[in-house]
Amino acid sequence: MSDATAGESPSGRVRVLVYSSNAATRAQVRSAVGTRPDPALGDIEYVDVATAAVVIEHMDAGGVSLAILDGESSPVGGLGLAKQLKDEILDCPPVLVLIGRPDDAWLAEWSRAEAAVPHPLDPIRLGRAVVDLLRQHSGRAGTGVLRSR
């Protein structure tokens, strides 16, 4: 698979993983960003995930262009999960974390996430962050290759 298509699904859409233990939060993210937030990026195909184990499976498999992780998820929060992904996956795709409050930005920085958006989610701010990350990292979807330990 070429770098240009590594983050695209077989249908040619950009794949965005959305992790939250709360189904309403996942739906809110999908609704806020939509399926085509920027015509230059193409359509977004969402991968909804409710557990950390499934996030790791998808990220290990590769082909994800962006991961949006809810820091308020339970029992595994998105901030710790972001740090784990960045530490363990070679060429990890960009990660956007949803944080509980603006003062948690330092935790987002610790997690090595490229962006953070606080709850309650502002659709304009979230959409802008998603588009910016996808533009900056287009053609650089994660390979799913684990770092050697």
Automatic annotation (TrEMBL):
**Record's SUPFAM superfamilies?**
CheY-like
Q: Which organism is it from?
A: Rhodococcus navarretei
Protein's recorded name: Response regulatory domain-containing protein
Taxonomy, top ranks, is:
Bacteria, Bacillati, Actinomycetota, Actinomycetes, Mycobacteriales
Location of the Response regulatory domain:
15-134
Where does the source fall among the domains of life? Answer: Bacteria
Q: Which residues carry this modification: 4-aspartylphosphate?
A: 70
Q: Where exactly are the transmembrane stretches of this chain?
A: none
Print the keywords alphabetically: Phosphoprotein
Extract the InterPro entries matched here. CheY-like_superfamily, Sig_transdc_resp-reg_receiver
- Indicate the secretion signal residues: none
